[in-house]
């Protein structure tokens, strides 16, 4: 009788685990076809806020930072970001951004009022092209208040009030409409900025997650830049939990979420996202968190496979490569 009660209790636990998916060491995002970009909070107004301007001392502090970064850009710089590739910054190193709801042809800004407080427009005066950037891409647009704003490739240029120091890219992905700028005015992180796809054109766009045939490991998962993605034995898949924190993150970078419509060779049902302790979102396959390795210097490298006996390239079903 006691054994039967134990068996029944085990069945109930198993049923709960099946229903709960990957579990909830930290919350996983809903599976709705496209994932929410990192940094997308509850906006004060659609499309731009990401939680900015919600009152209290933080708003006052951020407003001060916004004013501090409202000046001309000077001679632009190109900076290599570990996750986004080459991004455009001003002469002090602040990341510059573009807004999907603006227009490039003809140039027009749709960010005013509270939006402009969160995303200070960059004045057009005294701006110069960075070395390696086409100066013909720089221009200006007149704003609703009569001021002139810098444009790059026809796109109005902004800074982000919540970037706290030069080199920050906290604005990238906010609201799904803000992106760091690539040198040609397109979105950073899209194969070097080469893609600037219209909404809904996922079928024609390059894959953001696909498979590569490695001579030693067989088929393994790679990101849009051809970087091998890895899993960590010390992470937990059930419930999902990361054990790569602090110093670990200097070597192993969490893979960013991808649009499920831009996956090749991998079952979209296996793709989920995980909210890390710092609030950013991380990609996973079959509840296994994915990372790329800073020791891989070229697309196709698999230098991270076998490191410490706990890091492994990943197959299309989230398992360890052979």
From TrEMBL:
User: Where is the stretch described as Disordered?
Assistant: 23-74, 184-211
On the tree of life, the source organism's domain of life is Bacteria
> Where is composition skewed (Polar residues) in this entry?
25-39
Asked if rRNA-binding is a keyword of the record, the answer is: no
| Record-annotated membrane-spanning stretches | none
**InterPro entries hit by this protein:** Lipoprotein_repeat (IPR005297), SCO0930-like (IPR047910)
**Among its keywords, does the record have Cell membrane?**
no
Ordered alphabetically, the record's keywords are: Lipoprotein, Signal
Signal sequence, renumbered to the chain: 1-27
Q: What is this protein called?
A: SCO0930 family lipoprotein
The record lists the lineage as: Bacteria, Bacillati, Actinomycetota, Actinomycetes, Kitasatosporales
């Amino acid at each position: 009788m006691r054994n039967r009660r134990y068996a029944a209790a085990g069945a109930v636990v198993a049923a709960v685990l099946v229903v709960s998916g990957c579990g909830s060491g930290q919350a996983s995002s809903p599976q709705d076809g496209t994932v929410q970009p990192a940094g997308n909070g509850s906006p004060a107004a659609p499309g731009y806020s990401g939680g900015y301007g919600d009152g209290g001392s933080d708003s006052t502090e951020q407003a001060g930072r916004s004013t501090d970064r409202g000046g001309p850009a000077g001679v632009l710089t190109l900076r290599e970001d570990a996750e986004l590739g080459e991004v455009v910054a001003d002469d002090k190193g602040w990341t510059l951004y573009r807004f999907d709801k603006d227009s490039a042809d003809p140039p027009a800004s749709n960010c005013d009022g509270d939006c402009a407080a969160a995303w200070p427009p960059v004045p057009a005066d005294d701006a110069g092209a960075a070395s390696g950037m086409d100066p013909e891409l720089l221009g200006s647009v007149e704003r609703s208040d009569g001021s002139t704003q810098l444009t790059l490739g026809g796109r109005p240029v902004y800074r982000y009030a919540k970037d706290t120091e030069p080199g920050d890219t906290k604005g990238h992905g906010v609201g799904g409409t803000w992106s760091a700028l690539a040198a040609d005015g397109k979105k950073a992180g899209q194969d070097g900025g080469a893609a600037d796809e219209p909404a809904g054109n996922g079928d024609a766009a390059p894959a953001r997650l696909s498979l590569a045939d490695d001579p030693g490991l067989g088929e393994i998962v790679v990101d849009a830049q051809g970087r091998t993605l890895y899993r960590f034995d010390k992470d937990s898949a059930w419930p999902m939990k990361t054990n790569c924190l602090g110093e670990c993150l200097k070597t192993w970078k969490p893979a960013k979420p991808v649009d499920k419509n831009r996956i090749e060779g991998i079952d979209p049902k296996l793709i989920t996202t995980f909210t890390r302790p710092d609030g950013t979102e991380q990609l996973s396959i079959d509840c296994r968190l994915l990372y790329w390795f800073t020791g891989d210097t070229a697309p196709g490298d698999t230098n991270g496979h076998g490191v410490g006996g706990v890091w492994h390239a990943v197959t299309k079903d989230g398992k360890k490569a052979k």
